[in-house]
Amino acid sequence: MAISFHNDGITFHLKEKNRHKIWIRKVVQTHQKIPGNLTFIFTSNEHLRLMNREYLNHDYFTDVITFDYTDKDLIAGDIFISVDQVNINAGEYESMPDEELRRVMIHGVMHLLGYGDSNKKEQEEMRNLEREALILW
User: Fold this and answer.
1) N or C: which end of the chain has fewer CB within 10 A?
2) ∠ CA(79), CA(37), CA(114), 5° rounding?
3) Helix, strand or coil, per DSSP, at residue 61
4) Mind listing the domains of the chain with CATH numbers?
5) Taken in order 41, 44, 50, 56, is the CA torsion positive or negative?
6) Are 104 and 81 in contact (CB under 8 A)?
7) Is 118 helix (H, G, I), strand (E, B) or coil?
8) Neighbour order of strands in the sheet with 74-82
9) Of the candidates 29, 132, 13, 111, which has an alpha carbon nearest to the alpha carbon of residue 63?
């Protein structure tokens, strides 16, 4: 199965694509799941906000929206990421943009693995899972 990276309406270059693919597969496998077709689409703040309105009825900016096509243990989906918001986050969290991008990417993967972030407890668990995944980088 394939992990792929695409741009939608922006010019963006993901560094170390193969390393990202290996890392994402490793993270999925550590959760005893099988990596399927995972597509990462990098886009703008405005485009992701429009998607957030259309598909989730939320009228605000976000860094990631995940569409889940998982079938049992085969993890699959489309993960849309706002590169604009990632850069804003990096400034707010005082992290490097590349590290923040990986955090957001793996956040989308965690949703495909079945983890949520709709309440304080889930958000704390999600942050811990993100940290564990980033260590595998």
Assistant:
1) N
2) 60
3) coil
4) 3-135 (3.40.390.30)
5) positive
6) yes
7) coil
8) 3-7, 34-43, 74-82, 64-68
9) 111
Contact partners, residue 131, CB within 8 Å, separation at least 6: none
* pLDDT tens-digit series, residues 63-122: 999 999 999 999 999 999 999 999 999 999 999 999 999 999 999 999 999 999 999 999
Which stretch of DSSP H or E encloses residue 1?
Answer: none
Residue 80 CB: number of other CB atoms within 10 A? Answer: 23
Strands 3-7 and 34-43: parallel
Largest CA distance in the chain: 37
Dist. CA 72–CA 113, nearest whole Å: 10
Please give the pLDDT value at position 55: 86
